[in-house]
Fold these 2 entries.
Entry 1:
Amino acid sequence: MKIMPCPLNGPRNISEFSYGGELKQMPAPTLCSDAEWAAYVFNSDNRAGVVTEWWLHNASSYWFLAERHTVTDEIIRTFDPKELFNQRVDFAAPATLEEASV
Amino acid sequence: MATLQARDFRERSPLSHRHAGATLGGLGNAVIVARYGADDQRAQLQRCALLDLSNLARVGFRGAHSADYLRQRGYQLPQAPNQALTQTDGSRVARLSQNEYLLLGSLHDAGGRIAEEERAWQFGATANYLLPRQDSHAWLLLTGAHCAEVMAKLCGVDLRAQAFPPGAVAQTSAARINVILINLAEGELPCLQILCDRASANYFWDALLDAMAEFGGKPAGVDGLL
């Protein structure tokens, strides 16, 4: 059984975790183009090498980040997302529908 | 005196139909298994027994201000995530993450204090959010000397005393469903408090009884605890 070290719960069977996709920088939702937003939502880099990914520990509903080598499948490091996300992000709703469709 | 029947109560454990032959006792607005048969079940509890505490109150709180809120309400909180503390009145508080707490009621007040916490909470300006747990989880109690050996058959985490001391919490998978395991004794009786998905409680009850069989484990009631 492959073991993943969860930052909150310690080493656990990989079957207790769900993959949550690559960590990506979110473009500013109100300023970016549709193409940029679509790329953020739908496209993956799928890089061969060390990547940073979201993982969920199912039993505790705890999301964290893992650095993993996609060729060797070696887990290099796992860490709490607070290391990167240390301030609140507020989303302002578009004022009008026209603005939303631009 | 008329015998209590689970079907006469609006709040019923998901396992209520599994308690055939049990003598029931009142517990607030619900019932709980008092005992099976006429014998004193203390010896069974000490050896290996499974109890259904699903009708006892439980609730969660999460948010950056939950710790302050709970301290103001008179609770002692565990120092670190995945630890639990028994309160002076017998209620329990488990810390499930940096900002999440699970409160488990006491049999001594029929869960009254914790049920009141769920009623008293109000949405406000501070980051303290209610997590109703009464209808999401079932609550089982595995008692006796063989807790770790029973769970070793179902669960990958080392729950032996040296690795999982009193006050420890493990959120993990047992018998392939998600569970919260809390090592908090009932008085002197070694116990594992187990919370699992309520809809899977029937399956999990059978899986536990099957694992307990080789240790002489049986279902029991709360009379022997009080």
Note: Residues 56 and 84 of chain A are 17 Å apart (CA to CA).
Entry 2:
Amino acid sequence: MRLSRRTFLAAGLTAPLAACSTPQRRGAGGPVEITFWSALRGSQQVVDAFNSSQNRIRVIFQQIPSGLQGGYVKLSNAARAGNAPDVATIEYPQVPGFAIDGVARDITDLVTDGLRRKLLPQALKLTTFDNRMFSVPLDIEPMVLHYRADLFEQLGLRVPRTWDEFAELAKTVRDKDSAKRLVLFPTDGAMQFACWAWQAGAKWFDTAGGTWRVTMTDEPTRKVAAYWQRLIDDDLVFRNAVESRQSDAQIGQGLVVTRLTGAWDAGAQMRARPGQKGKWRIAPMPVWDEPVVGTHGGSTFAVTKDCAQPEAAMEFIEWQVSHPAALTARLKSGTSSQYPVAPGLVETGSKAFPREYYGGQDVYQLFKQEADKVRDGWVWGPRMSATQRVMQDGFARAGAGRTTLIEAVREAQKGTMPDLKALGLSTEEGER
Amino acid sequence: MRSKLACAVLMAPFFLLLTAVFLVPVGTAVWLSFFGADQPGLGFGPERTVFVGLRSYVAVLSDPTFLNSMLTVVLYCLIYIPLMVVGALTLALLLDSGVAKLRSWAQMGLYLPHAVPGIIAALIWLYLYTPGISPIIDLFAKADIRINFLGVDTVLPSIVNIALWSNLGYNMVIFYAALQAVPREVLEAAVVDGAGPVKQAVRIKAPLVRAAIVTVTMFTLIWALQLFTEPVLLNQSSPMISARFSPSMYIYDAAFTRNNYGLAAAASVILLAFTIALSYGVTRWTNRRAAR
């Protein structure tokens, strides 16, 4: 009696499970099927272009939510259940985490020297750990300064080249129009803050000694935190989440005069606010002393542990990151302005990206110049999403005047260490 | 013999369920908390499952975000439980005293929110709390009162409010039922001795439903320590609610966003131990008071 009931239950359970598992790969003769998950805009167009360019590999694409909106949880759970897609999109900060969890496989031997030569070494370094490569970078996104050329003219402002000039300018803007601010300090912007720290020479994570050395409040980070804290305390910047209606209103109504984000955001801005066409320009991010920058955003492609056809998966990845048709397809979707890791594609990007929105400016030439200035030596940590969240919890309270930025960073380190220790990683803490 | 068999058959479903939904999960959590999928050094090598002893427990207890979540839930209990018990008891006494008119209507109106699933309740309140869409905030704004229900200091009271709204009616019904069992002759004696309705309620009825008060306190405590649904939902619109706001949220975050099952399991076991200890404490304390 119980036995038959159990088999009945088992049959009932397996039927729906079988129905939702990944499609079976076809046998000899037909094309190899590769499943691909991404949250990147324009991916469908890229996949379509790839599928029609050849008939040996057929990519089945699924759009998933962006990483922190559930995309990463979906990927981890799929991998845990043994049905991760063959190729997944992972942003730089999350690469070490997925590598440690064994979701992204070691692809050192799959990446040809030819492909390696096509890509910027400073990007490859960010996906290589322990001399092993875990994913192939698609784009590298130096932070740039987006500014309202019309408002700059109206208020008689000059584009700032250094952070000192930037702070001066913040005061000028506030004094000239008390409703306006130069920029927003994003309370949900741990990644922007990381970029500023990166530029200043911070090294939050270091793997040099074969152990994770975590030093999130090093001298450069303290300098950056103190800088922004002063802007906040003097009421020279807005302080709210950037992913919010409040921020949309600030940009939409022209209350915020500049934006500090990665190169990719030029396309997102274009799509989100078509009405501001011709008003924006892009300039290099302000610098301290050395002409270096950090990055904000950027994605990579990993071959997962569940992939049965790694060579085919790698062929698709190689095409995506280095073939001009891939970039053209993505830019044609009209929502992207990614800066490719393959310098050979810059000309393509420069041609394909519509220039009207930025008043005829060739933004790709600027991105190229900035991408070469990305500072060497930055390493992302093993649980970056969590570190980011804890930091942003602190930033939100700092924005409300309840704590300071540096304290939020310190809390982020304290909230990260137990995680790393519980994962059994060899860790070491720097000053905090 | 026959009665023993009947006893076994009747008890079997209980023990089966207890094993399936309590003992096995708890056992799994304990097991998970003592093992880890380790890789040496930086962690990029192949994994192997090893016994890690108390490592996960040490990590949880040294995590300031976990300790903060415990502190938050304790604070929540300190606000919520007294309000709930006193509120529900007061309402039950009012209904019982006959002061309230339309007794059955009042009872139903108060009970109805409990029939609304927690997630729906949280959604309703999320709507009422969110600036820009909330009619309540608009109304306050018209009277020139600026209120942010999801600010640094208001977010905990806002959650307490949702929980009260959901559970007040339920607990009131328990108290009301207990009050029905208070012997009428005792009350008549009180009246003869000159006790008014207030004195009756406070000095006679309330002490006589002590057992119900203890039960309600205990259930409320256990329920409150598992605080999850409301903050998870409000988390989407308030940065003041972190992903590790309460211990249950910490556990969820550890397991599903940090992929750290050992850590999540250890935190679960700690929360379970804490809950058991606190419930035991409450029982002992009330029993001792009863004995005096």
Note: Residues 106 and 300 of chain A are 14 Å apart (CA to CA).
